Amino acid sequence: MTDTATLDRPAPLGRRIRRFMSDQPLVPLIVLLVILVGVLEFLRPGIVNERWIANTVKFAIPLAMLAACQTMTMLTGGIDLSVSTVATMAAFFMAAQSVALDPVSAGAIALLPALLIGIANGIGVGVFRVHPLIMTLGTSLVGIGCLQVYQRTVIASGARVPDGLTWLGTGLTGGVPNALLLFIPVAAFVILMLRFTGFGRLLYAVGDNERAARLSGVQYWRVILALYVLSALIAGITGLLYLGLIRTPSLSLADPLMLPSVAAAVIGGTSIFGGRGGYAGTIVGALILTVLTTLLRLLQLPEGARLILFGAIVLLVTAAYLRLVDDR
Amino acid sequence: MTTQPLLDASGVAKNYGAVAALRDASLRVRPGEVHALMGANGAGKSTLVKILTGAIRPSAGRILIRGEARPLGSPAAARRAGLVPVYQEPSLIPDLDIADNLRLTGTPVAPFRDWVRALGVPDLDLRDLARDLPLAVLRVLDLARALSLEPDVMLLDEMTAALPANLAERVIEVVRGEVKTGRSVIFISHRFVEIAALCDRATVLRDGETVGVVDIVPGIEERIVEMMLGARVEKTRVAAAARDAQASSGPPRLSVRGLAAGSKLEDVSFELANGEVAGVVALEGQGQDELFAALAGSIRPSRGTIAVDGEPVVFGHPADAIAQGIAYVPGDRTEALLMQRSVRENIALPFSARLRSWGPLAVGRERGLVSAAIERLQIDTRAQREVQRLSGGNQQKVTIARWIAADARTILCFDPTRGIDVRTKREIYRLLRELAAQGKSVLYYTSELEEVQRVCDRAIVVFGGRVVDVLPVEIADEAALTRAAYGLPREAASLPASPSGATP
């Protein structure tokens, strides 16, 4: 009798929660973010204030923007390991060219290597079918090499960070980071592009089942070429913003953002195998990683222990999240 | 029946969950005979072969070799028991040379060389890489390797399919010579000519059961076809016939001339009219896959021409075929669907394919077209957020709905009803007839022959990569199609009219 009674109920609670999570994958991420902020406030009462939030957002933005590149490429089953190099190159060129040129021309020159690397990645992956991991790693190394050569030629002329970039990167207006002026349009563009354009559809389609996409008339190489060019351009623009935030160009400027940008996309629920995910989750993922970094720094652990904890937490969170959301 | 059989399998069954691939198969092979194993698609031939060669384990049954039960738990065990197969696909490792391939499988080199020579390849260099050799030579090498292991029972699966006539003759000679020494050969082939030339007896399977064992004598072909079909020769209602052949004027929608592609499609010509559903009937691997792939723009034909509405075309990518209104629905749903995406995205996928539609989606128009297609195919959309949550039948409907929404003028359906329920099948038949009534055309390959009379206006029969017959729907019943698919002439079929469905 008890058996029939349970059958009458709609579904067990656990199952219902999973269904809900599966339909609203953002909810558990936001809950996790709030919990992390709560822990932070508990450990150091009073730390979470307006200034802290603005600062966190400021540092999360470049990460979230590079993670946009990872999200888009991961949707097709790829990855873009050249984003940090592209960002560094853009920043370095910008700083070097600004000595002599106006910011707009300098910016245009700075984005040129980004464009070239994007085209190379797109052709390599889309036409010659090189694995994205290898292709983007290769162009990344070539890019770094070129940058070292370039550095020698401009070492005498010095570097300058345009005031506009400093304002955008570090400035606050009424307590709100100016960087949002750049980030909100970029984020809106990526989210809307993925959801409401034909190109966005194709990214998911190619990543889910390339053969099926082909049989529907999708030309793989075009999608991939456009994707990697777009990814490189966003990475280049991120480099300019990051220059304004850090204010000292170096050959490894954006390197610390490279692997966290992949982690942010994965934590945000984008499948590395393609076909699943979205940018909204990635943004929360970038915020989670930034808060987590602050939290670990606050514990005043040695660098090694911090890295171990960071890695372990990222793994745990990703595994738990996928279990929670994957309703099958 | 005094001689003890060399191989004696009886009551062999194999279940996959609730599905029985093999119910009650028996196979007795005497020493010194070549024994044909026959059956229509899905009769259980390959399952039985896999069991005999240790690739899968039977759910029930008894297998004796020289009167002894020997373990056949793995391919190696089967080989130790004296059963050696030569499969349809070449089994040498492409990136190793022949000598290394032999070493890898523990094949004695001297007898191997002798066999290769005896089979008509005089100048083989053992240092050649397997990948550099032509397919026909690879098949011969596989056979030579099996022969040099001196097996008691050799299984040859479509051995002669890829061989030119002179090599095929040598193979038949060698096999005949081999059985004189008291060994035996199980021969699987779709070609009656070869079976007549080579085999002594045949075991016929139908629906997973052995339905008869016959001696190969002249004229036995008809009897074998009858046994393969069994009592299923009941008439299916001819669905088409309503179409007026004269109705369509102007050039044919699709005109194929001398098409060849890959290693299997040799020379196929036919026309597909507007408003017609043309059936394609063929046994496994007769070139039908290549035919559909070439028409869909997935592979490039090596010879021949395709014309659409009278204009010659060359397809370099499926997009080119789609631009001409030709859509392909593959038999394997996992090839056509984005399993993690929604029903709507799956159906709307072709809309976004072209460069000019990469911009913002025309949401309203898309929703209209998609819901119209969903409605028309009655797709159950309760689980529409991910296509992988749909039932097989509903998934198949989505693959077709995509092209209804895209308003394709010609649909190439490759076995679209495989593995789906009867109701969905009926719905698909009806839909295809409706499309034809609207002037669209459909090319319909099916492995279930009775579907031809339900759906098609005529049947194009392909055998050995060529069109061997075109049957009007009125006479394209299962028996006629089976005969034609095995390459038997139509006249012989109509002479011994014995539709009694005699049981052996």
From TrEMBL, chain A:
GO terms for cellular component: plasma membrane. Its main location: membrane. Keywords: Cell inner membrane, Cell membrane, Membrane, Transmembrane, Transmembrane helix, Transport. Pfam families: BPD_transp_2. It is a multi-pass membrane protein. It comes from Prosthecomicrobium pneumaticum. InterPro entries: ABC_transp_permease. It is found in: Cell membrane. GO terms for molecular function: transmembrane transporter activity. This is Ribose transport system permease protein.
TrEMBL record, chain B:
Residues 7-232, 242-489 form the ABC transporter domain. Keywords: ATP-binding, Cell membrane, Membrane, Nucleotide-binding, Repeat, Sugar transport, Translocase, Transport. The keyword S-adenosyl-L-methionine does not apply. It comes from the Bacteria. One of its GO terms (molecular function) is ATP hydrolysis activity. InterPro entries: AAA+_ATPase, ABC_carbohydrate_import_ATPase, ABC_transporter-like_ATP-bd, ABC_transporter-like_CS, P-loop_NTPase. Transmembrane segments: none annotated. Belongs to the ABC transporter superfamily. This is Ribose transport system ATP-binding protein. It comes from Prosthecomicrobium pneumaticum. The lineage of its organism: Bacteria, Pseudomonadati, Pseudomonadota, Alphaproteobacteria, Hyphomicrobiales.
